[in-house]
What we know:
Blueprint (H helix, E strand, L loop, with lengths): L1 H14 L14 E9 L7 E3 L2 E8 L5 E2 L3 E3 L1 E5 L6 E8 L2 E17 L3 E14 L3 E4 L12 E4 L1
Parallel strand pairs: 1-11
Antiparallel strand pairs: 1-2, 1-6, 3-4, 3-5, 3-7, 7-8, 8-9, 10-11
Amino acid sequence: MLRFALPAFLAVIFSSCLSDPDCVITATNDVKISFLKVTPDSVRTEVRDTLILDSIRISGTDSVFYVADTVSSVVLPVNVGAYETTFFFYYESQQDSIKMSYTRNTRVISPACGAFNYFQDLSLLLSTFSEVKVTEAELSTSVSNNVKIKR
């Protein structure tokens, strides 16, 4: 009889946690960017491209990202106090940039969890890259890619 007491006690304790709201938050202010190239053969498939970065700078901040790094994708924060951000890529003796716009939507998950800013409607305003495509317009932790850049 005693051997069932501990599991029953633990079940009662842990079941009380289920009454709390689910505070799984997928909001983020990070945009996920992948670099691609198209194969020169007749199939013309997209493959990951590797960029040898000197650095990345972001409008509205003095911070420098990915200094002296080789990447095929990057994760960069948007300016949470604005509705557009420009990313400046310095690589292989070149400079390119993309200017993105977005909207901010504040959602209350529950009174216990609080409110969170969701960034949506990501769109391209300007680019010096040859081709940029927004693949997912909402910034979310569950999204694997927001933007594809082809060089």
